[in-house]
Amino acid sequence: MKVLVIGATGLTGNHLLKHLLRDGHDVTAFVRDPAKLEIKHLHLDIAQGEARDVASLERATKGQYAVMSAFGPRSLKKDDLQEVFMRNLVSAMTKNGVKCLVNLSAMGAGDSRQGSPFIMRKVILPLFLGRVFEDKEKGEVHLFGSNLDYINVRPGRLTNGPARGGTKASLHYDGLKPFMSREDLAIFMITQLISTEWVRKSPLIGY
Fold it and tell me: What is the pTM assigned to this prediction?
């Protein structure tokens, strides 16, 4: 399967690359600076580009079966980067006829804020991550209004420990521990390439 990974040099993106290559996929890493990509592999290509540059996203998505995005904010300041990126990505995928997108969002975004853990809803989001989530949610408007077969994954707090398994997914918080390792997150995202369970939905995931 030909898969484009956006945000490939990040912590989650690195796990996506490793597991996709281990599973035998043909992977393209979309990066701003190829020098920062440490992984080398016979089945790994590099597409250099920028989130704000729709032309580079059009080149990168051409011929792909699916796109996996682990693209995240670069600062906590007010910005429109995630909104512009998602608008450009939806446009590029639509132009090239690429339907499958597994997108990394976050627990507490959009309609998942209602019912989220108290400290997240009342402290972390309004005091620290409000601007980031505002930009993310504007990007999701473009995603939800598209014709893509997206899976918009919403994990809780992420850790750097190894995969431990036992990942749970739900549209509700009941029985879900709001944290998980980035490696388990990557594994869950990859399984969505061959599953239709969460297509055009935003599953909450944790343990």
Answer: 0.93
